[in-house]
Amino acid sequence: MSVTRHVPAHYREVFSAEEVQTTVHRLAAELAPWALRVDAEHRNQVLGLCILRGAFAFFSDLLKAIPTSVQPAFVRCRSYSTTEVLQPEDGVQVSLDDFDCAGRHVLLVDDICDSGRTLEVMRTRLLAHGAASVRTCVLIHRLRLDSVFTPDHVGFRYSGSEWFAGYGMDDRHRYMNYPAVYLLEGTGEK
User: Which of 76, 119, 125 is nearest to 96 (CA)?
Assistant: First the structure.
């Protein structure tokens, strides 16, 4: 059954739902040998850590496509304003749920790597809390000169500065449930 969705006029689809799912399966195939090796050699499944809120859709689809058990866990991070598009906050706010990463191999999953501040802070904290290793996987890596982090696994690379919505990413808390990824025209630098 096909669903007709209201898409705002200033949205431009950049990655279709089909492209997103193809990319999720490619990333799962990249991660599978590592996850299977961790499971076999360490007798402990990978700890999959979803950065909330934006990564929830990507995280769910990615874990379902990895052919071995991955234990899901969640962390809330925020580095952008919740009321203004493209407005970064002064630092990265992190709220960890109760999980133990000591000795664990962690797959850190986020929707997008912009400056890389969130992934750098999280990777550093996880290793400081005893994680055996941390791999990072993002749906979109925005290519920026001021980036402080390069993810290990990347779905799409994008060099523009426009804001994204859809597939977990939001436009002031809206359109997160749409299966495609859109650019908000007029939000990039001129």
Answer: 76
Q: What is the pTM of this model?
A: 0.88
24-60: pLDDT as tens digits: 999 999 999 999 999 999 888 999 999 988 999 999 9
Q: Let me know how long the chain is.
A: 190
Does any domain span residue 190? Answer: no
Taking CA atoms, 126 is separated from 13, 57, 99, 100, 104, in Å, by 35, 22, 11, 10, 10
What is the residue range of 63's domain? 16-163
In-domain check, residue 114:
yes
Q: What is the CATH number of the domain that holds 75?
A: 3.40.50.2020
pLDDT, the chain, mean? 89
Q: Is 152 a domain residue?
A: yes
What residues does 52 pair with on adjacent strands? 76
